[in-house]
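Before any further analysis, we paired sequence with structure tokens, yielding the entry below:
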Amino acid sequence: MSADFRKEAFPILKDYLFYLQTIKEKSPKTVDEYFIDLRTFFRFIKFKRGFVPKDTPMSEIRIDDVDVELLRSISLFDAYEFMDYVKTERLNNSSTRLRKTSALKGFFNYICVKKHIIETDPFTELESPKQKKSLPKYLTLEQSIKLLEAVDGSHKERDYCIITLFLNCGLRLSELVGLNVTDIRPDNTARVTGKGNKERIIYLNDACVSAINEYLKKRPSDGLHDRNALFISNQLNRMSSVTVQKMVYKYLKKIGLDAQGYSCHKLRHTAATLMYQHGNVDIRVLKEILGHENLGTTEIYTHLNSQQMEDAANSNPLSKVKAKDK
């Protein structure tokens, strides 16, 4: 949770955030984001209603004094004004505004349905901002092979193993750095802890098993600060997300892809796309592999490349039918 969580939140908000973390098992990062979003909302409400001097910086407005009377006075129009504020003044994109909408709807549903603090939920009709659906960026099969071939240096076995797991298993960055040695099981599977501390089992193909075995031969064993961690840094700590990102960027730059918006998450996109396009993996199976809660999230990987679209057009039985000369 945020370091300021217990000091800044009013009691009902604290209760809700603890509920998210302990009962709903939301990740600390998600709880932090919801707290920040709700704090921004109540700061905005207090400023708009003149509860603080007009020259008070938004960041200095306290919310620990928000009471039931204020909560009962919130209307749907307040939410619309707030969404306009974060879009025009704070330049929040649609994804960030969508999260803020979820935070508001979740909190007010909680104090209405769970706690009965308010009689009616003002945000039941609050619509979510439209999301621009863009195709995920991914490496081609040839680029993926080139990336693996680029790995070298004193940590080549470790780095090769990391990139192999990204490209073959579609792991999130947080899932990869969180892997422990004991998560790699004798039956060629691995236990992965995903969002919300939800565990899933993934199957390791031959490339993954080989890469892991080669790395384990070189993995340090003495002086470790975290003996459980699978991937070890130069300082003998568990590799951090930042360290892994820098390593991946280094090899992407080596093959000329550093300035094209690629990242560790793009390697996850790559794994999903290659499995779907080249392995004919069913979308429902892909959902389980990636650890998605909703099938709709996985469906973004069903995009088609231009060659597939051309092949589909040419496969139409009418594709060769032409007008006869008269």
